């Protein structure tokens, strides 16, 4: 006889075959998450199991369709007021998972959907794991992305299952493994179709009962044996990991070093000492401003997934898209439309070469995946078949949205609008990927301006998560919500911004880059400026970024911003000399840095194992007419450039360019790599104190002039003691 005991989030079923099934289904949550209040419930379930002499094994599974367990409830952690409170929660998890591991009967986790953070820690405490082969199934410890570490035994159990090196990689990056990768790594024992997940888990319990194990331990290479099973080897691994963390984080993120410390303690001093330090460091990290900011990012992005740009307006379903222009941007937009959104794309370019480029963009990325065995060849062929192209408008009639990625020329773009109106249907949306032209100008001659919108991607399109959606006064609400939904299906995070020069991201980035140029003009060496801003937390410095984007493109955008907003956007006059010198940056191997042959290591470098780092092209100083001489500290350089960015971000909010501080923070982090540990420019201004910021701006204004004058919003906020959040 099957009996059932329900304890809110946990249901115990005890079928006749004697393998009890604990189903987790947290009420009122769309995904399973672990909460402190479940402690008593789960203990009661285990007591029930122990009392039931009929039960000789257990399967833990989820009652949700879309998740195993997505981890500890981040909101619960966020609400904690003290380290003690957090530590109690972590220790509760540690004790519960120890209890599972120490059960006399075999316990198997049957995993379908994400098993992340505390969810994977729970699964790792079981004696075996079976995973569904579904795309939704992912396993990982992403706590580092929240500025935390796995706090309920994860730092101790993962290395035992997947080895020291792999576990460090997973915990330090937050990387998630798909089902197949999890089996390969030794994190899961078997992968099966979802339809037989539970059945397989029950069989595993029986196998464990008979044989004590379900899969053979992974074989290690001789090198891995040395690196993982000897203390000398392990020290090398820990030293390398520490060096890598320090060079990547520049000391801005406290969690990764704590993760290494916890693993090392477990390995050298034993499991219990490892758990002690794990719960201690977890609780300390939870109270840091870095973790608070990163948790803020999690809440913001989760919230944004539900918004579609205009409240209450349903988006139309996009079934087919068109892309105009097969260049780098057009190729990238086609790629994400086909591979992420699953929407077929018709590309139009005036030349066969453009078409070839667009196909090559998708082919190269997909082919790499096939070569690395992340994708089957048949899947690649299926996705490539969704891309078709031509030099005319054949196949455009039934497209729901057209994204234009042609040359930045107003006349040309206006002609494109007319062509689309003539060759598509009356509902087809015309989305322009311009980075600088006002959308209202592009829509000026449109017969159906309600269908015209801006959809600004960032390069490289397949990697950068942000898009700016730019509505004009005439754009219809349905066009906005359909475009937002389309971008989200492409895997992007869209923010809706106002139609002004530079929109949001490029406008504030422009002012920041201008200031970096001003610092160069005072003779500060190029590499010092880049190093200062990388230390501040940006992925690359402004001079490197300018070389990447193209100095010519940067100057063009600077001109547009100057025309729109006046003097504070004036670029130092000498920058013109770079354009006259045909210095365009990386694309023509002539910029602030050395590229091409000259950047390659010489034979002498190779013979002496000398690494050739990035080198400044010294001739740039001669062109600019300056003598390089370091006179500022890293902090001074970073503050001077960033303070301009902050002031302009506040001005954009005041002008309604972004709808709220949250969108502004997400825009800068996802669009430019603005340091995530600060939570974005608006959160950073709050943590600095608006009055402090205003005082700093006034002091810069006194030294460098009115481009630093604090904007009205900041001045008023400082007076009223207000914050953005
Ligand atoms: C002690 C431990 O070591 C500490 C921890 O476990 S810390 C937590 C570690 N876990 C994580 O970081 C995972 C966070 N979650 C995610 O990355 C993503 O939500 C996901 C990959 C699981 C799913 O993504 P996706 O399918 O796009 O769904 P998404 O919209 O993000 O989430 C669905 C719902 O689950 C909620 N959710 C998911 N994980 C959550 C978590 N760990 N805490 C609280 N809520 C969570 C979301 O808030 C959202 O709620 P809503 O429907 O009420 O808005």
Topology overview:
Layout: E1 3-7, E2 10-14, E3 19-24, H1 38-51, E4 57-62, H2 74-79, H3 83-101, E5 107-111, E6 115-116, H4 118-125, E7 128-132, E8 138-140, H5 154-162, H6 164-173, E9 176-178, H7 179-185, E10 190-192, H8 197-211, H9 222-229, H10 231-249, H11 255-269, H12 271-286, H13 289-305, E11 321-324, H14 328-339, E12 345-348, H15 352-371, H16 377-384, E13 387-390, E14 401-404, H17 410-423, E15 429-432, H18 439-442, E16 452-457, E17 466-471, H19 477-489, E18 493-498, H20 505-521, H21 526-536, H22 542-549, H23 551-565, H24 575-580, H25 603-607, H26 619-624, H27 634-654, H28 661-672, H29 681-688, H30 690-704, H31 712-720
Parallel strand pairs: 3-4, 4-5, 5-7, 6-8, 7-10, 11-12, 11-14, 12-13, 14-15, 15-16, 17-18
Antiparallel strand pairs: 1-2, 2-3, 8-9, 16-17
Helix pairs in contact: 3-4, 3-12, 4-5, 5-6, 6-10, 6-11, 9-10, 10-11, 11-12, 14-15, 20-23, 20-27, 21-27, 27-30, 30-31
